[in-house]
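Septin
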Amino acid sequence: HFGARSRSEEKQPVAEPEQQPCSIESHPQVHVTGGEPHPQGHITGSELFGYVGIEAVLDQMRRKAMKTGFEFNIMVVGQSGLGKSTLVNTLFKSKVSRKSCTPNYEEKIPKTVQLQSVSHVIEEKGVKMKLTVIDTPGFGDQINNNNCWEPIVKYINEQYEKYLVEELNVSRKRRIPDTRVHCCVYFLPPTGHWLRPIDVEFMKRLGKIVSIVPVIAKADTLTMEERLEFKETIRHNLQANGIQVYPQREYDEDAEDRIRNDKIRENIPFAVVGTDKEHQVNGNKVLGRKTKWGIIEVENVAHCEFANLRDLLIRSHLQDLKDVTHDIHYETYRVRRLNEGNGGGPVNGSLEKSDGESQL
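C-alpha cells:
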C-alpha cells in the first residue's frame, strides 16, 4: 500500500441496516450488477451454530507482536538543568538517557541546538521494545533563542521523509524501519507564572507535526497551591494561543475514549519529579527524592503526577501515540509531499538535499 488511510476515512459512520420483511437477521453482502448491495447483518455469538474460533486472532496477533517486538521513539525538549535525562531513566526504570549511557559524560552547553539520539532494546515478560530517546541539547540555553526550534522541526520532517521514500520504493522492505518521533515531552521550568514566549512558539509550531505532552519539571520546588495555580494558568495560555497538545479532542474515537481523555486533559500539564534512587518507606523500597522534610515518592500520586505521565506514555496510550503519528501527522506530511511531487520534482529529491545539509 502507498500509505495508511487517514482516521477520518476509517471512522465513517456505518449506516444502520434497513428493516427487511423477513425473519432471517443476517444478510450476506451480495453484489448485483446494476443494483445496490444488500446491507450487512450482525451475527452475535448466540446465533452461531457452534464455536468458530475468531477470538484466536488476538492470540495470533499477540504472538506475532512478541516475536517481532515494536518501536517507540520519544523526544525530550527543554532547557538544561530541568531533569530530562533523569525523568526518562525513571520512566523506563533503566539507564536509557544519552547522559547515563555515555562514558565520561561532560555537561557542555552547545552553541546551537544539536539533536542526538540513543537506542536500546528493552525486554519485559517476553515483550521487546526498541526505545529511541532523542535529546535536544542547546535548546533554550542561548541569549538569543530565535528559531531554536527549526533544527527540531527539520529532524522530525526528515524522519517522515525517510519513511515516505521507503514506502514508495518499488522493492519495499517487509518491515519499514520506523524512526518517526511518536511523542515529544516538553519540559516547562517551574516558574509558577505563565508560559514564556519560547514555550508558546515551540508548542505552536511543533504541535502541528508531532504529539506534544507538556510537563512541569522539578515540581517539588512548588507548593501544592502554587502547582495547581500554575497548571491552571498554563491550560489558559494553551487555549488562548490555540496550541494543540496530546491527546487532542478531535481524535477521540468514541464516548469511552472521550471520558478517559477528558480526565487526562484536565490534568495537563503533569507536574513531575524524577529520580533513579530508591529509599525505604514503611519497609518498602520506593523511588524517591530525600529532603530534610521527608521523602518525595515519585510514583505516589499524592506527591507528584509522574505516575499519570508514565501511564499515559506507556501503559494506556503508547499504541495510540504511534497511531496518531502514522494516521494524522505522517499522513498530513505524505499528502503534502505527494502533492508537491505531482507539481514537478521527484518526491525523494528533498531528502537527498536535506541529508547533505543536516548533520543532526
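The first strand starts at residue 70 and ends at 77.
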